[in-house]
Amino acid sequence: MEQVDERFDIGARLHAMRMAAGLSQRQLAEKAGVPHAQISNVETNKISPSVSTLRRILNGLGVGMGDFFEPERSPSKGPFFSADELLDLTSRISGQLPGGANGTLVLRQVGDARSHNLQILHEVYEPSADTGETFLQHTSSEGGYVVEGELEITIGNDVRILKAGEAYLFDSRLPHRFRNISGERAIVISACSPPYL
Q1: Any idea what the Cα angle at residue 158 is, between residues 156 and 164, rounded to 5°?
Q2: Strands, DSSP E only, in 14-63?
Q3: Where are the alpha helices (DSSP H) in 73-130?
Q4: Please, what is the average pLDDT of the chain?
Q5: For residue 153, is pLDDT > 90?
Q6: What is the biggest distance separating any 2 CA atoms in the chain, rounded to whole angstroms?
Q7: Is 1 a domain residue?
Q8: Reduced to 3 states, what is the DSSP secondary structure of residue 56?
Q9: Are 119 and 156 in contact (CB under 8 A)?
Q10: How far is the C-alpha of 120 from the C-alpha of 168, rounded, in Å?
Q11: Where is the signal peptide (predicted)?
């Protein structure tokens, strides 16, 4: 796995992208469907956004997580990919939770998802990792297979804890959330079409 640049400033990067798009904080908040204060708090690093919140904000800018975190990096063309060629989408999002718990969530993408209209992810959920209280919801279909550990998945009103060897497949227009409520790491291989993150 790649070394993470601990100096990556999410707030400064969001501010620069918003300014380049010619949007005020209020305009971006309206486009993203988030409270105005949330844009300000992320830009000033008062809060570290969850995956779901950051994705909503970036959707307002019309960019993906890969473009946000690794704008200079072009996905490898493949057809084969070494571990260091996977595109890091999330590890720079702080995983620190109240009480000092580490809730790091690392999503790494295989190749150029947009050109193949398919996003394949290697997902690592440390204990307490969570995609966020704001549920994800997008026009796609997605599925995955739990390789290690266990993961709580909420899809609409259905909640289930999947263990290694179990899988899921659903319409992503249904509100959904992924959480590791166990004390052990969970690893998932997933796919989404069309790509979302």
Answers
A1: 120
A2: none
A3: 113-116
A4: 85
A5: yes
A6: 47
A7: no
A8: helix
A9: no
A10: 14
A11: none
113 Cβ contact list (under 8 Å, min separation 6): 75, 119, 120, 195
Q: Which of 82, 81, 31 is nearest to 56 (CA)?
A: 31
114 with 153, same domain: the answer is yes
Whole-model pTM? 0.76
Q: Is residue 78 part of a domain?
A: no
For tokens 């004390």, name the residue.
183
| Residues whose CB falls within 8 Å of the CB of residue 192, separated by 6 or more in sequence, listed in order | 118, 119, 121, 140, 141, 142, 172
Please check whether residues 90 and 58 belong to one and the same domain.
Answer: no
Q: Which of 86, 80, 52, 99 is nearest to 197 (CA)?
A: 52
150-155, strands of its sheet edge to edge: 158-163, 150-155, 176-179
CATH number at residue 19: 1.10.260.40
Q: Which residues pair with 109 in a beta bridge?
A: 87, 121
Exposed (0-12), middle (13-18) or buried (19+): which is 98, by Cβ within 10 Å? Answer: exposed
For residue 31, is pLDDT > 80?
Answer: yes
User: Is 59 inside a domain boundary?
Assistant: yes
Instruction: Tell me how many domains the chain contains.
Output: 2
For residues 112 and 187, membership in a common domain is answered with yes
Is the preceding peptide bond at 71 cis, omega within 30 degrees of 0? no
